[in-house]
Structure formats: C-alpha cells, structure tokens
Amino acid sequence: MKNRAAGILCHITSLPSPFGIGDFGPHAFAFIDYLHRCGLNYWQILPLTPTNPVSGNSPYSSASAFAGNPLLISPDALVEDGLLDAADLATAPPFPEERVDFSSVIPFKFHLLHIAFTNFCRSRGRWEEEFAMFCSAQADWLEDTVAFRAFKIHFDQKSWVDWPEAIKMRHTKEVSRLKKELTEELDYGRFIQFIFDRQWTLLRKTCNEKGIRLIGDIPYYVNHDSADVWSHRDLFQLDDDGRPLVVAGVPPDYFSAEGQLWGNPIYNWEALQTRKFDWWLKRLGHNLYLYDIIRFDHFRGLVAYWEVEAGRPNAVVGQWVKVPVVEFLQTVKKKFPDLPIIAEDLGVITPDVEQVMKQFQLPGMKVLQFAFDESLPHNAYAPHNHIHNCVLYVGTHDNDTAQGWFSNADESTKSRLGRYIGKWLQENEVHWDLIRMGLASVADLTVLCLQDLIGLGTEAKMNTPGTLNGNWGWRVLEEQLKPEIEAKLHEMLFLYGRLSPDDSCC
Fold first, then answer.
1. At what angle do helices 483-495 and 430-440 cross, to 10 degrees?
2. Catalytic center residues
C-alpha cells in the first residue's frame, strides 16, 4: 500500500443474487466492474470459512480455519459447468431480496449441491485430473476437514470431545475404518471444497485483472469444535479429554464490567514455537492463496492474550500472557517477505502492541466514527492525527452505518462533528461528509462500507457485537448501485489522489 488508494468493504453474502444470498456468480463479477468504474483498488470481505446457524451464521465462528463456505458457491456457475440444469434452479423458493434468510437458503443450497455432486460423479472422467490436482495440493488441511465434517454428521452433530474415544483421540486404525465406511460423504466434502476453490479462483483472477486487490479477514482464534483443534490438539491448551484448560476473552473495560468471555481455546505457543510456527505459516499461506492482503483480527492477542480459566462465568478473573510475537513475525516475514498484513488494533492498545507494529511496519486501523468524542482534538482517530501507514474506515462491519451512527449520536457528538467539518450537517448527506473526510485523510488506504456509499441507516448494519441473532444478513439491491454514486465517488477519488495512475477524472 505504497500509493494512496481506496476500497470497499462488502461481504460476498451481501451481493444481489436470485438465490437468497450473495455468491460467486454473475452479480459478483458485475460488482467487480462497478468497483473498477468507481476507481476503487481494493475489495475487503469477511472470512470465507463455513458458517453455522448455531453460532448465528457468523463468518467469525467456523468449524474450519481453512475450508470454504458452501453457501457462497454459485448455482449459475454450476449450470455453466454442466453440473446443474436450469430446471434445478427453478425450484428456488421466494427469497427476500434485502436480507439473507439463512433458514431457507441453507436447505436450498445444499439440495442443489447434492444434485451437482451426483452429476459430478456421473461425469467423473471429465473432472478427474483437475479434481485430483486440487485434492493433492490442498491435502494438508482438506483431508482432516472433510473427515471432521463427515464424522460430525455420523455422530449426530456432537462435539468431537463427545465422539467415541478412538475417533476423538484419532487412533489411526479406527479413523481409517470409519473413513472407509463414510467414503461417499468424504468425497462429497472434497467436491464442495473443489467447486468452492474453482469458483473463487476465477473471481480473484478477475479482480486482479481489473486492478482490484482483495483484503481478507483472518480471525485470531479458532473454534474448539473444529477440524483444526481436533486434528492439532497439541497446539492448544487442552486437558487429557480434549477440553479447554483456559479460554479466550478480554478483561473488563469501560464498555463491559464483566469483560468478554469468548470461550475459544487458547494456543499452546510453546508447542507452536518448537515447531517453528508451522501451523500458523500454513494458515497464513492458505489465506494469501485466497487473498492479496490479510486483515489480522484481534492483533493484540498476537502480542499478549487474556487467559481465563475454563468454567469461569465471566472474564473478570484472568491474566495477560505474552506471546513470542517477535520470533513469530520474523518467521512469517522470512516466508512472506512483504508481510501483507493489516493489524486490527482497535480498542485499548498497550505500548507493547504499538512497538511490535512499529518494528514490523504493520499498518493499523483508524475509524472515523470513534473520532468525535470529548477527547477531540487529541483523539487518535481524528483526521488531523492520522499517519500515512494506516487503513482508515468510516466504520467497520461491527459499527453502525454512517447514517445510523449520526442519527443515534448524542447532540454533543453531532456538534463536535459539525464544528470539525465547519458546516451545518444534514442527516441525509452526512455519509458523504464522512466519506469525503476519509478520502482526504493522509492514510494510505481508505476503505468505505458499501452501506455508507449508498447512504443507508441502521437497518443495513451488518453486525452488532455481543449479540447472536439478526446479524450478517444485510444485502444490497441491484438498483441501489446507482451511476450517480459511481460518478460522485470517482470524482472524489480523483480530487484526493486515490485513483490508479491509469485512471482519469470523469
């Protein structure tokens, strides 16, 4: 990110499509064209890993840190590949356009995927070489992931710690026996990941050809009930039965008197260090296979994490534990010299985190919505305090939209914002005021939420942290991507020096 640029934050699920959820189909490619016409150079998305209704369909809670989400596979592309007939798509129920109704999308999508798998098996010869190459190239994570998925189904979705002892502890003979019994289910799992990879690779290639780089999100922690923990128990702090000894969270702060108890298992950094961080290198390598740049969620946990004894009711009682972060990042830098990482450094950040970011020249994040509290003009998020090596957001997927934030802000905040900008603010135009401010910043990269570009209110908010239901469902309507927005943004990008050299002002 050496040149000034701008991007959009919009998850794949939020795109238009006739199948109830955004996917890797025609509308995604049309969106790439839209971003290109606007003059944007980056597209940031949320994690692509499988989601689960039990965890509110959050992309940050997955049974695999490596696998792709089957819901993102395009039925249209399956028709083009001859794996579905157009008649199969005609069975789609009437989906809402403005929200993802996961309860109807999930059964329909998997119904289509089962049909596609049957057709794939019938025409296996046509796909055999490409399929075999994929399975071989991704075997390191693929085989454990498809086995975990098949075993979960076989054992009625029980957590892996409640599986029969031999399977839970991965006794080779018993695992091999069960795999033979579930051969077709395993092959179905490989097929899903093969198709996901095939469709995503084409989408990423198209982005890069249009001069658009993809920013992907990598959560710091993984779920306990996941293929990752089941297949790498030694890399996590677990008891002899496989249950967490300590769990993740953050201590009490201004926003929460009891802290936040996330419950994820905590890494065994001593074991990771002994193995030269091989699992992390594979995870980062896989994400850089998917994306051009990684946004490292909860980066402060990579420097020191808040450890809570398992079974505690909240995160009040715990301790900070340091991570061998310098050795880790030095190892990562040897493998990936450009170190294409954005550090999510929001919240209370201690000097040790700042020092690590400075040492490795990692860009952090600034959020305009946090800039106008009573600490102004000293607030680090205020534009006059920005630095070049950072990524600026008006808001993130965890914030309200710009319109919603302003509508719900107290009068003091609104007054400070108006005084800072130097104009009387109009509620229906404040999103453009914030966008203009963000693009004018010295920050090398400014990322705008699509909801803010359109000017939507709180109803379009993507996620409310700390809540389980009602999140991750917002979708953009095709008619909301108006040419006049495109032209206005392109003009601003030109004025603030964020267009590519080969772009010109309208």
1. 30
2. 297, 344, 398
